[in-house]
Amino acid sequence: MTPYVEAARPRTLPAALAPVLVGTAAARTPLTDVSWLRFALALLVALALQVAVNYANDYFDGVRGVDTEARVGPRRAVASGLVAPGAMKRAIAAALAVAAVAGLGLAVLVGWELLLVGLAAMLAALGYSGGPRPYASAGLGEVFVFVFFGLVATVGSTYVQDEGFGLVAVLAAIPMGCLATALLVVNNLRDIPTDREAGKVTLAVRLGESGTRRLYVGLVAAALVVLLPLALLTGEGWLALPLLSLPLLWPGVQLVRHAALGPRLIEALERTAKGQLAYAVLFALALAVATGLTESRT
């Protein structure tokens, strides 16, 4: 694995794929009429922004001395000397350029209002761990992830298909935000000791170990519970299908609840990512079936 692939943190990439799948399936546009070009561009934007965030976090935490040899998680490219700071800055710019070009394509196809959303997402990506007051160090990283990798990515993926969105897309965005945030929470749980020592006051540092563990469990539970109002709203029992992802999510929950701070939480991150992807695939399938049934009844 090259240093740049490693720095992109492949385990976190389902957080970019999942909301695009679900948002596309939540569109009123029947599956047979989905614009796969718009889908591909939306997915490219999401993946490029995820990589840009990961590169930026690697760069800023590396040059600020947040990532040290005491860190338990996967090695960081800048801190370990695998990638020079200047080279990582260029990689961040390249990832943002890919997101910008794909976003421009969507703006041409859908509407120029998407440029404002894209600009906000890019600024948020850089502000996560960069700038004079990175908001990850103010305990607001989870808010960023929930908003941009949950609400914006899911509802935005519906918008690029329908050129509008409804309550179903908004409700579908909530579990996507919860599971994406759970990925960040388990990552920050593992890093509590080194983040605290480096002065990086994440939400996990503020909540402490036990509070962060409870937050993770609550996020996973919320992703499952929100299926009930969605099923009641649509009248489609198919929307309970994502509950079948529980066997994949459960090992991550158990690890976060009981594992000591250390390497085993890397496994929890992996389990969470796999569970999130399974949930998203099942959810997208359920939404597509429900949309098809609705269309056939009208």
TrEMBL record:
Pfam families on file? UbiA
- Could you list the residue ranges that cross the membrane? 36-56, 114-131, 143-160, 166-186, 215-232, 238-256, 277-294
Q: How does it sit in the membrane?
A: Multi-pass membrane protein
Presence of keyword Mitochondrion: no
**Which leading EC class covers this enzyme?**
transferase
Q: Name one GO cellular component term.
A: plasma membrane
The record's subcellular locations are: Cell membrane; Membrane
Q: Which UniProt keywords apply?
A: Cell membrane, Membrane, Menaquinone biosynthesis, Transferase, Transmembrane, Transmembrane helix
The record's catalysed reaction(s) read: an all-trans-polyprenyl diphosphate + 1,4-dihydroxy-2-naphthoate + H(+) = a 2-demethylmenaquinol + CO2 + diphosphate
Chief location bin:
membrane
Q: Tell whether Transmembrane is among the UniProt keywords.
A: yes
The Gene Ontology terms for molecular function here are:
1,4-dihydroxy-2-naphthoate polyprenyltransferase activity
Which EC number(s) does UniProt give?
Answer: 2.5.1.74
Q: Which InterPro entries match?
A: MenA, UbiA_prenyltransferase, UbiA_sf, UBIAD1
Q: Which GO terms describe its biological process?
A: menaquinone biosynthetic process; vitamin K biosynthetic process
Pathway it works in: Quinol/quinone metabolism; menaquinone biosynthesis; menaquinol from 1,4-dihydroxy-2-naphthoate: step 1/2
Entry similarity comment? Belongs to the MenA family. Type 1 subfamily.
What job does this protein perform? Conversion of 1,4-dihydroxy-2-naphthoate (DHNA) to demethylmenaquinone (DMK).
What is the name attached to this protein's record?
Answer: 1,4-dihydroxy-2-naphthoate octaprenyltransferase
Source lineage: Bacteria, Bacillati, Actinomycetota, Nitriliruptoria, Egicoccales
Q: Which gene encodes it?
A: menA
